[in-house]
Design a protein that fits this description.
The structure is a homodimer.
Chain A lengths: L8 H12 L1 H10 L5 H25 L6 H18 L7 E2 L2 H16 L8 H21 L11 H25 L16 H26 L9 H22 L32 H4 L5 H6 L1 H22 L12 H18 L5 E2 L3 H30 L4 H15 L23 H11 L9 H15 L1 H4 L4 H14 L5 H10 L5 H6 L5 H4 L2 H21 L9 H15 L6 H8 L13 H11 L10 H4 L11 H6 L3 H4 L15 H9 L20 H16 L1
Antiparallel strand pairs in A: 1-2
Helix pairs in contact in A: 1-13, 2-26, 3-4, 3-5, 3-9, 3-14, 3-17, 3-19, 4-13, 4-17, 6-12, 6-13, 7-19, 7-23, 7-24, 8-9, 8-19, 12-13, 12-14, 14-15, 14-16, 14-26, 20-23
Chain lengths: ~700, ~700
């Protein structure tokens, strides 16, 4: 695979790819029905709460020039635009911490200059945004995102871990501050007496740990043993927002007595309908008043912001499209960067801080949509199985019917053998629908409901937050800190770096347990010592990056450290690790794999009929289970069979496949995206990546299907 | 089975039985080595902490006449005596809540009488104790404990649940009071200002929930995936005491600042070396100063106390010897009640409140000893397996050797087929010691290390607490409340009433999961509706009992409500439920099952060699797993085979078996104790109590062993 540096080449490719599925992006989302609300609210909270918190931070640091109203508005506007005309709708946009740090730095600079001052600050940032946007547009046109494929798993996951650490740090800092007198507050207020501060801090501990623990528990509600399936489904889907409400309610319990009004501390946000709130929306008028020297000088922070946005946006997009999700629609790195350029200008002229692709919200979005798709597929299969069982058919027949139903839903992969669903675990004489239902979770591969509706809806809801400010103010800040910790923890499962850290700390006698569950290939192919060394290297690198974020302003540029990983990975690491091991640990080989045709019409049909299925509980553990790699669509036997995949599968090209989709995995996915969609296919020598009953059952199945052919 | 009301008959029987194994009680315990310290410290904390807390309560209610020093001294003295010359060494003695309530009532009565007053209060209680003791001794001689076998599972478990509820109530009450000004304290102190009270309450929430959650987690440390086996073993064994230390340390973190000395509130206990503390040890001198009318009148509270102690002591003993523990040594209800009588006199003359058998500590003691025994057996089997594997023997041979090693340890059951250990799950070509080690936990039956050392040591440690009072005072009261909640929760698993409540709330589609794990017979034999109705009845009865404890003084007599269950069970319940269902739900049939010979020497040998085995982690989940009945020693096939057990096994009588042990299960266990040791053996019609892989693997095994014979 060569990098595509032809000007506009990448953008054209992206546009072509996404336009092909643009209509399906909407119809597919709409036909999922009310169920789309579960991922939507989940992501809405994950998106809105940090943005509000960063807005509060910005308010303190810019003397109230920019507030949560502005950060929310920017997130909502950019989100709406991106979800409608953006490329990859899985990507979530928001005002992120680095942006806040940049704006704080620029505010301090502007305030110190008498010919700029805080009055012209927003106008000046308008110019910074203009320069940033020009640089981003240039990068997009020149195909700079092709470089993103040099960012292998090691870089993406290190970045993900770093963000998790920063979120956790934010949570801890916030909690510690609950014991202190807040800056810029009157320390003589009753609630800032040492006694009340002590009480406030302890109450904050109760509220934040309460939120954290209950939110984590509620996410696993589907696999609870108690309560009706309907209730468990609701809790798993809406538990996190619900817990924010519950703990906000709890925070009002003690306020009946003689406790001062300020305990517990709550969000402080301005009234969006006040006079001052409109002030900065007319920044464009002041922009020409900025002295020329500053207009030119704005180029310096602009380069930093461009590097930051280029990196953040692309990596967030990349993490939202990891190969374990088995995405079917093409990526859109180049076009999305171009659009980001325009969004930055737009925000700059409005005087609001720009939004860019955010971690961990973007991968969280994809995960929650995978759960949704799983539910939809499950419904369809259960309906099929129920029909069979009512006719008293054997398990063999039930399985056949389910396979057929699955194939019907999965036309895109119909010609490719490995896309069959797994095998029902055991043939039992008396099959019940309960048994089949519970097995379905094990046999369904991970797929994602790729559409634009959830992203648009969540952006609209973020916009609604501006209006709902008086309600949002009721949330205690301590609930916020708990939520930050929750997000940090939620982002860990599925991150192989994290999985490896856990593996290193796993007792040697318990390592077999890792093998029994779904796990990444490296667990079996790479010696433990090598895994440990590689993980240690990554951990040290992570700590260095984390240390850099503490350096006052250079800290904003920690993405450069991540970029430095590219040469480190390419030239330094191969000196210490074997190539094959590095490939498995880092997933950094680039093979071309032929196309898998995609029939959009059939997928649509599937969603529409599936949405009529009865609402059933599922084990979303399968998708977001807390250890091991996310379940693979490719069954182990395939690994050994297809060591030369391009030949094996060349005959499977569908005559109806479009030219875009034909070379999609090979050129678009494998090319423009840094991920390796079907890496497993080219593994040499028949590795089995799922030991235990799964490999056995699929062995059985393939043995049988071959003899049947 | 007929009841044994021959005077002294029961006591003689008990004495004969326990004397037979008296030497082994000591040697077996001593030979377990340092490992005995794990259950010892576990029970020491479970025993000491409530006793200290009840002592504090008593101090408030008796104007400081009786304090934690007295309750600790009573618990220690009675514990030491019972563990040395008592019958059943699994039984833990302690000053319990009902005793505290009785003493409070008697103090209020004495204070209101001018010719008695608080000065003669202790002398008067001495008389109450004398009467109580006489009644208890009479009950013991007349064999009243035979009636205890009328207390079926329904009564014992209802009582256990009630105690759990009372402990939980204590925890909640305690926590709520942390927000209030304590009685008999100076409300003008800084720490009782509303601001500090708020902070104190919130801090208490943090400490108590911290202790509760970490203690519960630490008990499961053996099955953690992370950390070395050695560390996990330590945490599982000593985690609960460790957590008390950790959270006590945490409580000192904020005290560096300007926080008043009294936050968080800590235990208030008198100095045991002060002058006043010796005052009541000379009560015996005052006893003759008590007016005769009061000496006679003391008979009224004495009857209440006798009923209470008779019931509490016997039920605690019964719950410590439930049939799932597969105990090998005989019970000793009659003799223990006799001894309790003498202990009550002893305490009465010393002027300290008497101790009796306590729940949930006694069953907790047995459970922790089952874990210990499991570890010892495991070591032995692992050593045997390791030897085989080093010779490259097949799994079949390994299993044979392990079976032999087990038989060697289990000579008492050598002639009885069902006493074989389970079957290794799957035959794998390459067997590793890790695989075998992990399987061992699944194949070992539950057995208990029955000895006297742990009980003696924990009593001595409780005695040591009196000296260590200055250290104990450092524990925050909030940690105590967390510990109460912990004990309540720890006592629930294994309680079938609780399991049934959970089953009722289990989603219908998840009920198969209950069947996949170890579970009680009723799950399969009784219709769900009947289970639900029976559980509802029990729950309503429980709530009535709980309500009665709230009635000021009559509340002490809630055991009468439990006694009322005997006629209810015998005459009322059969009108609503089918006999067979009741039998399964309540385990109330009385069959005679022939003897199982017991060779003490061999068991000793086992312990001594096992204690040399390497310390290995085990999954004590098997023993204390949180759902389902505790694992059965009898494998499913046996149920169907031995529908007429007395005939089947009559030929298995060992010539070397002692007359005591010969009819042990039939007469002693099945007779004097209300439990049904091998009830499973007489089930009709081949029920299989463990579905899923366990039944399959044992099916396989029996199929094979039959053909081999």
């Amino acid at each position: 695979m060569e990098e595509n540096f032809v000007p506009f080449g990448g953008i054209k490719n992206d546009l072509r790819g996404r336009l092909m599925c643009y209509k399906q992006d909407w119809t597919g989302g709409l036909k999922a029905g009310f169920r789309i609300l579960a991922p939507t609210t989940y992501i809405f909270f994950a998106s809105a709460i940090p943005v509000i918190s960063f807005g509060e931070q910005l308010e303190r640091d810019t003397d109230g020039l920019l507030t949560a109203v502005q950060t929310l508005a920017s997130t909502a506007l950019c989100g709406i635009i991106h979800s409608v005309i953006g490329g990859q709708p899985l990507l979530i946009l928001g005002v992120a911490e680095p942006t806040v740090l940049m704006y704080t730095f620029m505010f301090n600079f502007a305030k110190s200059r008498p010919d700029l001052g805080s009055k012209l600050f927003l106008a000046w940032t308008g110019w910074v945004c203009v320069w940033t946007a020009l640089l981003l547009i240039l990068l997009a046109i020149l195909g700079a995102c092709s470089i993103i494929n040099k960012f292998t798993r090691i870089a993406g996951e290190l970045f993900g871990m770093l963000i998790a650490m920063l979120f956790m740090q934010e949570a801890i800092k916030g909690l510690v501050n609950e014991f202190r007198i807040p800056e810029r507050e009157n320390p003589k207020l009753a609630e800032f007496q040492s006694s009340w501060r002590f009480g406030n801090g302890m109450f904050a501990l109760v509220l934040s740990f309460g939120l954290l623990l209950t939110a984590l528990k509620s996410r696993k509600a589907r696999s609870w043993q108690y309560g009706s399936g309907w209730l468990r489904g609701i809790i798993a889907d809406y538990g996190v927002p619900l817990m924010v409400l519950v703990w906000t309610a709890v925070s009002y319990i003690p306020s009946s007595g003689d406790i001062p009004h300020g305990i517990p501390r709550r969000l402080f946000s301005p009234n969006p309908w006040s006079q001052g709130a409109y002030q900065n929306w007319t920044v464009i008028k002041d922009m020409l008043n900025v002295p020329v020297i500053y207009i030119i000088g704005a180029f310096i922070p602009a380069t930093m912001m461009a590097v930051l946005y280029y990196f953040d946006h692309s990596v967030a997009s990349q993490l939202a499209q990891q190969k374990e999700f088995n995405l079917r629609k093409p990526p859109s790195f180049h076009y999305d960067l171009l659009l980001l350029g325009f969004l930055v200008i737009f925000c700059g002229l409005l005087g609001i801080p720009p939004a860019n692709g955010v971690i961990p919200q973007s991968p969280m979005h994809t995960k929650s949509l995978a759960t949704l798709k799983h539910q939809l597929m499950r419904n369809r299969l259960v309906v099929a199985a129920r029909k069979c069982l009512s006719k008293n058919e054997s398990l063999e027949q039930v399985y056949g019917t389910m396979q057929e139903a699955y194939q019907h839903m999965q036309t895109p992969l119909v010609y490719q053998e490995p896309s069959t669903i797994g095998r029902l675990k055991e043939l039992k004489e008396s099959t019940t629908i309960e048994f089949v239902e519970n097995e379905i979770d094990n046999i369904l591969p991970v797929e994602v409901k790729e559409q634009r509706v959830s992203n648009l809806l969540q952006s609209l809801m973020v916009g609604g937050c501006v209006a709902a400010m008086p309600l949002i103010k009721k949330i205690p800040t301590s609930v916020l800190w708990g939520y930050f910790a929750f997000m940090a923890i939620e982002s860990l499962p599925g991150n192989q770096f994290w999985e490896r850290v856990l593996l290193v700390f796993t007792a040697p006698s318990r390592r077999y347990k890792v093998l029994e569950e779904f796990h990444a290939t490296f667990v079996e192919t790479v010696p433990f010592r090598t895994i440990a060394m590689f993980t240690l290297f990554q951990a040290v690198y992570l700590l260095i990056c984390f240390g850099i974020t503490w350096i006052p302003i250079a800290g904003v540029l920690f993405p450069l450290m991540i970029m430095l990983l590219v040469p480190v990975r390419q030239y330094l690491l191969p000196k210490f690790f074997k190539g094959a091991h590095l490939q498995d640990l880092d997933a950094a080989e680039f093979e071309e794999v032929p196309a898998i045709p995609l029939y959009l019409e059939n997928e649509e049909e599937m969603s529409s009929s599936a949405s009529f299925g009865k609402s059933r509980e599922i084990l979303d553990e399968v998708i977001t289970r807390s250890r091991g790699e996310i379940k693979r669509i490719y069954s182990p036997k395939v690994h050994s069979r297809s060591s030369t995949p391009s030949k094996d599968f060349s005959s499977f090209h569908s005559p109806g496949s479009d030219s875009i989709y034909s070379p999609r995995i090979g050129e678009l996915r494998g090319g423009q995206s840094p991920r390796h969609f079907v890496r497993g296919l080219s593994n040499e020598g028949g590795r089995i990546s799922n030991l235990g009953r799964n490999s056995q059952s699929s062995d059985k199945f393939y043995g049988r299907s071959q003899s049947a052919l």
